Amino acid sequence: MNLPIFTIIVPCYNEEEVLEVTIDQLTAKLSELIKQNLVSEKSKVLFVDDGSKDRTWHLIYKASLNNEMVKGLKLSRNAGHQNALLAGLFSAKEASDCMVTIDADLQDDIHAINEMVKKYNEGYEVIYGVRSSRESDTFFKRFTAEGFYKLMDKLGVKLVFNHADFRLMSKRAVDELEHFAESNMFLRGIVPLIGFNSTSVCYERRERLAGETKYPLKKMLAFAFDGITSFSVTPIRFVMLIGCLSFFVSLLFGLYFLTLKLFGNTELGWTSLITSIWLIGGLQLIALGLVGEYIGKIYKETKRRPKYIVDVDLFNLPVSRKLINMEGADYEPISETRKLSENN
Ligand code: UDP
Ligand code: MG
């Protein structure tokens, strides 16, 4: 049997605190898989530096010199987690039969990879890593994350419950992923649309090894909002429904105030009148904002901007230039990133 060439893809943004441990653990895991005859000796671990401002690229580059298994891909600037994953997948796919994506902080259990590769060898093409418990997460993170999955389900978006971006995909699935031309790629929503033979593997999610989360509340909310508006038009329908309801309610109020007026008690109505002006005004603004949000999305999509730009690709030498999404990430001049990583 031909063993599959396997690539582990790791997005890294300012991960200098954990990276050395991560490199050690993942290369050890890959050696173990090779030894167990589960994957080919040509398998690699590909670290994608998503425009880090610290020593992340320096560490990746150094490791790639010392260890054949370690490869690096440096994006020209911070393109965001999802784009970093895409950059890694698209760069690795030509030379790989299957790929696993996993976060650099090793919150996801690397031992689940064995099970994933076994399932791949059994013929599955997409294997989702699913958290069996969220004990290591704070109450807030658990509450918001699980609420998000439930809300998405209600809105008709089919997500795999408690699955994030720890998954194995075959080359064929990644090839299909490339056909999704939208610039806002919410992978958790898109991968299930690819279909093929899929299954999941359970694991326990741990705490971050070191460093802090790169998803503060602001980014988390933006990510959830993007996920919802990229996949569902239900919010816009909901707003219309509220609009109709409030129109109906204001009719009732109108009747009520008219009756009061007939009995000569007009000043009574002032409070309710001013309240309803604010209420309707508010509702209209929400509705306008939501419509604007969707129009904004259409505007962004029509531009067809590159999703990312690769600066250095140690995986596919000679250096190739490939494109990635500029939206949704803080802008930072390229020259500054270069200077920083060269100084280190
Ligand atoms: N990450 C990235 N680009 C970003 C933000 C995050 O590549 O702009 C990476 C980060 O280095 C990590 C993964 O995405 O490997 C998930 O981030 P994190 O662990 O901070 O998120 P959390 O687990 O707290 O949701
Ligand atoms: Mg994490």
Automatic annotation (TrEMBL):
<dbReference type="Pfam" id="PF00535">
    <property type="entry name" value="Glycos_transf_2"/>
</dbReference>
<feature type="transmembrane region" description="Helical">
    <location>
        <begin position="270"/>
        <end position="295"/>
    </location>
</feature>
<dbReference type="GO" id="GO:0016757">
    <property type="term" value="F:glycosyltransferase activity"/>
</dbReference>
<protein>
    <submittedName>
        <fullName>Glycosyltransferase family 2 protein</fullName>
        <ecNumber>2.4.-.-</ecNumber>
    </submittedName>
</protein>
<keyword id="KW-0808">Transferase</keyword>
<dbReference type="InterPro" id="IPR001173">
    <property type="entry name" value="Glyco_trans_2-like"/>
</dbReference>
<dbReference type="InterPro" id="IPR029044">
    <property type="entry name" value="Nucleotide-diphossugar_trans"/>
</dbReference>
<keyword id="KW-0328">Glycosyltransferase</keyword>
<keyword id="KW-0472">Membrane</keyword>
<feature type="domain" description="Glycosyltransferase 2-like">
    <location>
        <begin position="7"/>
        <end position="177"/>
    </location>
</feature>
<dbReference type="InterPro" id="IPR050256">
    <property type="entry name" value="Glycosyltransferase_2"/>
</dbReference>
<feature type="transmembrane region" description="Helical">
    <location>
        <begin position="238"/>
        <end position="258"/>
    </location>
</feature>
<keyword id="KW-1133">Transmembrane helix</keyword>
<keyword id="KW-0812">Transmembrane</keyword>
